[in-house]
Amino acid sequence: MVVRLTACFFWMFPLALEAKLTYIAIRLPLKGEQAAPGAPWPLPRTWTKSTTRLMVDPTNFRFTSSMTYCDIVTSAFDRYYRILQLEKTSSLSGPEQVMTSLSVDIADKTCPGYPDPNMNESYNLTIGSTSRLTSATVWGALRGLETFSQLIYKEEEGHQLFVNKTQIIDQPRFHYRGIMLDTARHFLPMPILLKNLDAMAYNKFNVFHWHIVDDQSFPYESVEFPTLTEKGAYGPKLIYTQENVKHVIDEARLRGIRVIPEFDTPGHTQSWGKAFRSLLTPCWEGGKPGVAKPNFHGAYEIMDPSRDSTFTFMEKFIGEVVKVFPDQYLHLGMDESYPACWKSSPNITSFMKENNISTYVQLMELYVTKVLDIVERTNKSYVIWQDPIEDGTKVS
């Protein structure tokens, strides 16, 4: 059966534009069984459950911990209190025992700065006559608190909350569990970003890969180069200020989520060129520079590796970024750097001859090496897409 659906979308631009998308798809039944009430997600490593249940009274329930001096712990308690309070409940009645508290015991009493690639997210959770969550670090406690919130359920008919007696021993299978959001092609307002952080926490994701700039726009507010934002953003209100970025990083930290920004070069940089055209390579067509050739290249695109000023700029810009984003890793993109523009440019051809560069893979390697060296001098680590490696570029 073919079903036709029509939906309207209003994008967040200075002027609201109406766009209609029509989906045509064959409807197929989804395979699988619906999880029972009180089932945690993702499935824990070890989950021993009982049919014996306890009642939960949100108004009288308390989390207890000796680490109430740590904002990560106290903010988590506040979040899960609020989640419990969202449920409308009636006065307690029934034979079940009432669960009044959950003791949260964390071995490492340090209140950490930011989550890192090697953070310990393991935890043990026991729900019973005495209920206790134990973990090595606060990061494990966050995951355990999320699991606890998922164990609580309400019967289809009724207004009381229950949790079954349970024993869980859990740790993540993968250290990196990420979500990428592209805020360059489609600007996302701050409330939407923060809601995504909540959604990530509910699903125990721990890396927000922020694809913050691209060809289409440059919404990141640069302190070192403010015109990048002024000329590259969709509009003056469609930017992420330094305060906005810090707020996202801080909120992510409270949920045990790392923030890895992506500033993609040498391709995907047309928004950079709106403020600094000299960064980009003038593409040639018909014997003239700065002329687009449809299906091959734009008028100006892909960073110009023949200019020392390109790398001077990148050193200053990367120097700013690594101070703003505390994570050990910086994503540098390096994908989809098509050489058509370089091939069209007599300036690039002359540069290659003067420097004994015979292929565009070698030219890309020169750019990649210089930018990676800049990052390494900051004592940060880098991430890139696989494209240069697949093309034969040597990446140390």
Q: Would you tell me the structural class of the helices and strands?
A: alpha/beta
Span between termini: 53 Å
Tell me the series of helices and strands, N- to C-terminal: EEEEHEEEEHEEEHEHHEHEEEEHEHHHEH
Main pleated sheet: 8 strands, mixed
Plain-language structure description:
Helices cover 30% and strands 25% of the residues. It contains eleven helices and 19 strands. The strands form five sheets. Strands 3, 4, 5, 6, 7, 8, 9 and 10 form an eight-stranded mixed sheet that branches. The chain has a five-stranded parallel sheet with strand order 11-12-13-18-19. It has a two-stranded antiparallel sheet with strand order 1-2. The protein has two domains: 46-170, Chitobiase/beta-hexosaminidase domain 2-like (Chitobiase, domain 2), CATH 3.30.379; 178-390, TIM Barrel (Alpha-Beta Barrel). The protein has helices spanning 71-85, 138-151, 190-202, 226-232, 242-254, 270-273, 308-324, 340-344, 346-354, 360-377, 387-390; strands at residues 2-10, 18-26, 46-56, 62-64, 98-99, 101-106, 123-127, 132-135, 153-154, 161-170, 178-182, 207-211, 258-265, 280-282, 284-285, 288-289, 300-303, 329-333, 381-383. The longest helix has 18 residues, at 360-377. With 396 residues, it is of the alpha/beta class.
Short structural summary:
With about 400 residues, the chain is of the alpha/beta class.
Looking at this protein, list some descriptive labels.
TIM Barrel; 11 helices; Chitobiase, domain 2; alpha/beta; eight-stranded mixed β-sheet; 396 residues
